[in-house]
Design brief:
alpha+beta; single chain; 6 strands
């Protein structure tokens, strides 16, 4: 059984930080008496803090637990608690906890300086000091005493302000009883199992998300394959259209060339007509001059003159017909030329449209190549050929992505099987732990019954001893001595 021997208090509440106050605990009982404010409760609080590391209630995070620097007339006060006790194995241990309270400009700062356990080496007899973090110290001391932290807090060193905890609400009461009777181990096992189940579900969700992502990638790959095939079909159709348009452009160029040749011929004819007209007017003027210069009038008869006139009019009519015919041909050629120009503009627009579609096709191919590169870089699928990719290379890369997707699906199935196996193993472990816990509980109950019987017999023996002592006290020893 663990026992408390001595405790040194310095700089805690009303205890002076400059003086060492040592309290010795006697066996089997130690009574602490004194007026109000003498520090009786502080002793219990120091015992609780030394053993559990828990500050008392209304300590304001340690600010009111350490001796006030203003009262000491200092900017900083240090507090220390030393507790010497025997462990459950009968080994002497000294627990040292040091604290510091500093007065800043606008507030006070509380700090736990160090936590040390001193033991004696049984072989050399030397003192051995071990420094711990506060959390490790809080776990180590209850383990050395052989008493749980919950019993130290709520039963042995319970504070007077918290002594009515059995009257609190059922949930808090249940929690405290669970802590006292160590029922939390069972709940912790359940929590561990729930956590494992939750982690498994989370991992399954993660794999499902990965599977959905891979399915999305697979659909994207299928869409890319379909878009590649559609782009190839569009490319072939655009190539055939471009070839047909090139043939049409060649035909139009030939027609334009023929029209330009015809226009040149027409211009030559117009030049000839203008030249002939100028020549005609010149000849007519010369004729007038010659006629005026004639000394005698023409002696031809009227019939001859009419015949000459008729022939001349016929010739003029023929020439006018030729001129009108040539003008019509010229108008037709101009109309045909305008139509051909319009056709050329239409063909140029179609060519620009086809070039734009070709550029769009190239951008789609570039986007396909960049998507493949991103997929390979993101999932580390291997090396890539230099961009841009050919259709055969794109198909090969898509097949590689598909094979990688199948491998990932296979890995997912394997991990699902392994997770199911691990879950089954954990459940079996849980059932075994539950069975062992039930057996331990049964053994504990049996030992408790045995212990209660032993305690009952001890009380009976103590009653008999008290009776015998009473009988002995009633006996007149002097009278017996006289009789002897």
């Amino acid at each position: 059984m663990s026992t408390v021997d001595k405790m040194l208090i310095k700089g805690i509440r009303s205890f002076d930080p400059e003086n060492k106050n040592v309290i010795t605990f006697f066996k089997p009982l130690t009574l602490i008496v004194g007026p109000n404010g003498a520090g009786k409760t502080t002793i219990i609080e120091c015992l609780k803090l030394s053993c559990t590391g828990e500050l008392p209630p209304n300590a304001r995070s340690g600010h009111s637990f350490i001796h006030d620097p203003k009262v000491a007339g200092e900017t900083e006060t240090k507090g220390q608690i030393k507790l010497r006790f025997k462990t459950a194995a009968g080994k002497d241990v000294v627990c040292i906890r040091s604290f510091q309270l500093t007065q800043k400009a606008s507030k006070m700062e509380y700090k736990a300086i160090e936590s040390v356990l001193q033991t004696i080496n049984p072989h050399t007899g030397e003192k051995v000091c071990l420094s711990y973090r506060c959390a490790d110290m809080d776990r180590e001391i209850p383990a050395l005493m052989g008493v749980s932290k919950a019993i130290l807090e709520n039963v042995i060193f319970v504070h007077q302000d918290e002594s009515n905890w059995p009257l609190q609400d059922p949930s808090t009461l249940k929690k405290k009883f669970d802590d006292i009777f160590s029922a939390t181990r069972y709940t912790k096992a359940l929590e561990v199992i729930k956590k494992l189940h939750k982690d498994q579900n989370q991992e399954i969700k993660t794999y499902k998300l990965k599977l959905e992502n891979l399915q999305t990638l697979k659909d994207a790959a299928y869409k890319l394959r379909e878009s590649i095939s559609q782009d190839q079909e569009k490319t072939e159709s655009l190539k055939s259209q471009m070839q047909e348009l090139e043939r049409n452009i060649q035909d139009v160029d030939a027609k334009i060339h023929h029209t330009e040749t015809t226009l040149k011929d027409l211009r030559k004819l117009q030049d000839q007509i203008s030249t002939k007209t100028a020549q005609r007017s010149t000849l007519f003027k010369e004729q007038q001059k010659q006629y005026a210069a004639l000394d005698a009038e023409n002696e031809d008869t009227d019939e001859e003159l009419r015949e000459w006139k008729t022939k001349f009019e016929e010739r003029i009519a023929i020439l006018e017909n030729k001129i009108s015919k040539l003008e019509r041909e010229m108008n037709d050629k101009e109309t045909e030329s305008s139509f051909l120009k319009q056709s050329i503009n239409d063909y140029i627009w179609e060519i620009s449209k086809l070039q734009m579609e070709a550029e769009v096709h190239m951008s789609l191919k570039n986007e396909r190549d960049s998507t493949i590169q991103k997929l390979f870089a993101r999932y580390n699928l291997g090396s890539l050929p230099d961009a841009p990719f050919s259709n055969e290379a794109s198909l090969n890369l898509t097949n590689r992505i598909k094979s990688r997707l199948m491998d990932l699906e296979k890995d997912l199935e394997d991990k699902k099987k392994s997770n199911e196996q691990e879950l089954k193993t954990a459940w079996e472990s849980y059932m075994d732990a539950n069975d062992r816990w039930k057996n331990i509980e049964a053994q504990k109950q049996a030992k408790m019954e045995i212990k209660s019987g032993i305690l009952k017999r001890i009380r009976e023996k103590e009653n008999e001893r008290d009776l015998f002592e009473l009988q002995i006290s009633n006996v007149n020893l002097s009278h017996i001595d006289e009789r002897e």
